[in-house]
Amino acid sequence: MKKVLIIHTKYRNFGGEDTAVENEAKLFSKYYKVKVLYFHNNITSYVNDSISFISRKNRNSMKVLQNEIDEFQPDIAYVHNTWFKGSLGVFKVLHSNNIKTLLKLHNFRYRCTKSYFSSKHFEGSSTCEACGLERKKVGILNKYYLDSYLKSFLLIHYGRKYFKLLTNSKFYILVLTKFHKDYLINNGIDESRLDIFPNHIHTKIGSDYQSGSNYLVYAGRISKEKGIIDLIDAFIKYNNKKITLKIIGDGPLLKKVKSKYSLKNIEFLGEITNNEVLKEIREARAVVTATKLLEGQPMLLCEASVNGVPSIFPESGGISEFFPKNYKFSFKQFDYSDLFEKLNLLDQKSFMLENGKKNKEFIDSYLDEKKLINSFEKYLNKND
To answer: Lowest-confidence range among 211-225, 233-247, 341-355, 357-371?
Structure first.
């Protein structure tokens, strides 16, 4: 049985990428011998860690990885997030051991301090690419990352070194969408090293969708770049007292929006468990997002589709790639009158039911387990 070593640095706040890594580990465990090596961003000394990071080598992480390689003897290393504690040193260790390496990019951190092309001061009529590869001072001077000059510098420095690694290395790179693949090609990455490999979803729960519930679900960060205020304003304009908007999550705007929008048909559930989120999704009329970012593969929307629940979302980044062609519930990004029009479709229950079924058929086929494994096998069996 082939051995797969999955390497991932967990985020301090558990998120979609962490979930995706767990899902893939479970999937691969059915077909391979799998070991997951987690690094944790529990920073104890920012000075020491910063020195390690600027040198691109976290020697402690490199030592841990070397021990895992010696013990596990993997056939392939499957790398996800390396920011912060993993560091780019993991690639040096893998290369020195002649370990076949596969990298999965979940976001645009190598180009953007916010990972999805959103600035700290994002107001929203277009996506932001102010930092880029050559304009690093923009992100530093505006403290785009965690409102810190130092942390913004470190992340932008990391991004530039990371992109250089992507350009010059020979390992294969997996991305979630054609949108991301095209972006890398347009920025000089060899197309022959790129492939599309979406995240696995296996969270179907309960019985089939019936479209009869009376609420809409938003689950995610309560922040400006996620378009939460624009979403709530469009929902209020929709003005259907029989439909409730349930808002799940936390973030910098939570107190503000809770104070401003104290309406009976807007509920703030705060942070709840993943199982509770899935239950809310499963019983919803639809899920909705008004993100202002260039998203990859939003787990919320895919989990809704797996359960036959329709999604309302902006045509942003690669989101549309996870839905059937000519999907009726997407709206032009930043066009909130178009979002309002899509909310009006909530009243058409048979139409909702029909589209929920189409979504489920599409996502079940697109993220089919055997298709994903067959795709992964290509890289296990490559000799270069």
So the answer is: 211-225
Would you state the pLDDT for residue 120?
47
For residues 169 and 227, state if they share a domain.
Answer: no
Q: Nearest-5° angle of CA 305, CA 306, CA 310?
A: 20
State whether the Cα torsion 24-29-34-37 is positive or negative.
positive
Give the C-alpha distances (Å, rounded to integers) separating 202 from 38, 79, 174, 303, 364: 22, 21, 20, 8, 10
Residues 197 and 288 in one domain: no
State the average pLDDT for the chain: 87
**259 lies in the same domain as 155:** no
Residue with tokens 């989120």: 277
Domain total in the chain: 2
Q: Which domain holds residue 288?
A: 215-366
Question: What average pLDDT score do residues 325-330 get?
Answer: 94
Overall average pLDDT of the 100-129 stretch: 71
Residue 206 is assigned to a structural domain of this protein: no
* Selection from 207, 354, 351 nearest residue 279 by Cα: 207
Q: Rounded to an integer, what is the distance from CA 268 to the centroid of its chain?
A: 23
Give the pLDDT confidence score for residue 52 in this predicted structure.
60
Query: What pLDDT, in 10s, does the model give residues 133-190?
Result: 555 566 776 777 777 887 777 777 778 888 999 999 999 999 999 999 999 999 999 9
Rg of the chain (C-alpha set): 21
**Does 350 share its domain with 220?**
yes
In a domain, 145, yes or no: yes
